[in-house]
Design a protein that fits this description.
single chain, mainly alpha, Phosphorylase Kinase, domain 1, Transferase(Phosphotransferase), domain 1, 2 domains, 3-stranded antiparallel β-sheet, 44% helix, 10% strand, globular
Length: 360
């Protein structure tokens, strides 16, 4: 029996499934020159474990306690197990209509609002950290436990930033501190991914060139048939200026309004009578078109991944990034029915070459 099986025995008294999450190691050999940095990271992770244990929120994954691997001495968190995996895995393997997606987005927004109301910032918000557990719905996980903390005196030039590039706000890419507005930007990227059922920037490398283009206004595809109300909300969330983004409370209130509208009409004997006929027509069209987009050929395109597209959290260090701006031209070109008109690597290289020529 291996060490993790032994650890599961320690928790067999629980009548709920669990998963183990490695957080910190006490046995790592540290070179003296790096001792201070590693020690501070280790200390910060311990503080973040304490923070997670102090947060008991309905839409945030529950932590039952801490255990330790008897062989490696790695500390582990015991978290609630979500059988459907993360949000990306769920939407790629299950069909959901517009309003069921609004319901799940509402749950996620509620969880993010609770985190912000608790005075916390997630710092690593992406679809891989949203877990789905059957009828219980979605839960936010990984409250920044696995990345270096960005303290006020930390500089991107010294230690870098931690996260998944496609979901990171441009100001964070430039080395500024994570804020609640940075979480909202990440929510917007995740929301569009869920609605479009397409992973962001999946056919180009996730590198310094992409970070530059994000700062210059590049954003992921918006599915052509996404209802305008939702398209407007998505673009507000990923606005280049943090102050223009909605708060988690505003995000929750907007989604809650839409969900209640659907719930009221779905339980009405006059379900064909809508307050907004145009919006309902857009919703019906979206449901029809997204179903067609799930055909084998298009689904294959939507999940194709460039070998340098990376969707796991990692340490990044970008220098000389431009001031973030919104690009109306980029937004217009990114409204598409599928990936056929998304920027590919050749397009990006051509744009970068133009930038270099203009700077000479």
């Amino acid at each position: 029996m291996n060490s993790k099986e032994n650890l599961k025995d320690l928790w067999k008294g629980f009548n709920i499934e669990h998963q183990l999450h490695v957080t910190i190691s006490t046995t790592e050999l540290i070179e003296e020159a790096n001792f201070k940095v590693v020690y501070m990271n280790d200390l910060e992770k311990r503080k973040q474990i304490k923070t997670h244990l102090q947060i008991y929120l309905w839409n945030v994954i529950q932590c039952y306690g801490i255990t330790q691997d008897p062989d490696t001495k790695d500390y582990m968190m015991v978290l609630e197990y979500c059988k459907n995996g993360n949000l990306r895995n769920y939407y790629l393997n299950n069909e959901s209509g517009y309003y069921s997606k609004i319901e799940e987005l509402l749950r996620i927004a509620m969880g993010l609002l609770d985190i912000h109301n608790a005075g916390k910032v997630h710092k690593d918000f992406h679809s891989g950290n949203i877990l789905y557990n059957g009828s219980e719905g979605t839960f936010i996980s990984d409250l920044g436990m696995c990345q270096p903390a960005n303290n006020e005196n930390q500089s991107v030039k010294q230690e870098g930033i931690y996260g998944v590039l496609p979901y990171m706000a441009p100001e964070v890419l430039r080395g500024y501190q994570y804020t609640k507005a940075s979480d909202i930007y990440s929510f917007g990227i995740m929301m569009n991914e869920y609605i479009s059922e397409e992973t962001p920037y999946n056919n180009i490398p996730h590198n310094h060139a992409l970070a530059i283009k994000i700062c210059k206004g590049l954003r992921p595809n918006i599915f052509k048939y996404t209802p305008k109300l939702l398209t407007d909300l998505i673009t507000k969330c990923w606005d280049a200026k943090a102050e223009n983004r909605p708060t988690a409370k505003e995000l929750y209130q907007t989604l809650n309004k839409w969900y209640n509208y659907w719930y009221k009409n779905s339980n009405s004997t006059e379900s064909q009578v809508y307050e907004d006929i145009d919006t309902e027509s857009q919703v019906k069209e979206y449901n029809n078109k997204i179903k067609l987009n799930r055909t084998s050929e298009k689904r294959s395109n939507n999940i194709q991944t460039h070998p340098q597209s990376i969707y796991t959290s990692r340490l990044l260090n970008f220098k000389n990034l431009p001031e973030p701006v919104n690009s109306d031209a980029t937004k217009t070109t990114l409204h598409s029915e599928c990936l056929d008109c998304q920027l590919n690597e050749l397009d990006l290289n051509e744009i970068n070459q133009d930038d270099e020529n203009n700077s000479e």
